[in-house]
Backbone:
């Protein structure tokens, strides 16, 4: 066998340069270009939507359609883009207090949140109001594109 380990990095780079120059790049270049295009096509075509989520497809930035959970195909190369929106989660915002650990023996923060819970009434009395907002995303298209003002329902 005619195998020799190069002694210096210069020899190693010199041998690599000779082998690279001996390759016929014109013969392999179209293959590499086609392979690169196919890999980009596959990488930008398929997407997955998880349980409890929906995919909102935008074509050139405008709303196109909604997809349900599963593996899906879209037009590649950035023509169609997908936003994954969790629609089954219940989001919660607390004002005037913070929950550190929820459960049977719920633990609350001892810190004061007066800046968000103190309110001034019409007759100039001060109220300390602690409150919670819970919400779900009902329409992911409205949430993403802000098409119309959301309807607020107080219960």
Residues:
């Amino acid at each position: 066998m005619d195998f020799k380990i190069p002694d210096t990095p210069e020899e190693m780079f010199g041998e690599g340069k000779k082998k690279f120059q001996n390759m016929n790049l014109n013969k392999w270049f179209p293959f590499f270009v086609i392979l690169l295009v196919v890999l980009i096509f596959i990488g930008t075509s398929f997407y997955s939507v998880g349980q409890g989520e929906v995919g909102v497809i935008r074509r050139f930035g405008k709303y196109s359609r909604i997809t349900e959970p599963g593996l899906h195909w879209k037009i590649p190369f950035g023509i169609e883009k997908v936003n994954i929106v969790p629609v089954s989660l219940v989001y919660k915002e607390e004002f005037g207090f913070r929950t550190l650990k929820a459960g049977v023996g719920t633990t609350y923060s001892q810190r004061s949140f007066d800046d968000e819970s103190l309110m001034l009434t019409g007759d100039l009395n001060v109220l300390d109001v602690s409150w919670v907002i819970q919400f779900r995303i009902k329409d992911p298209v409205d949430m993403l594109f802000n098409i119309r003002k959301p309807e607020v329902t107080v219960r």
Notes: Residues 101 and 109 are 9 Å apart (CA to CA). The longest helix spans residues 25-45. The first strand starts at residue 46 and ends at 49.
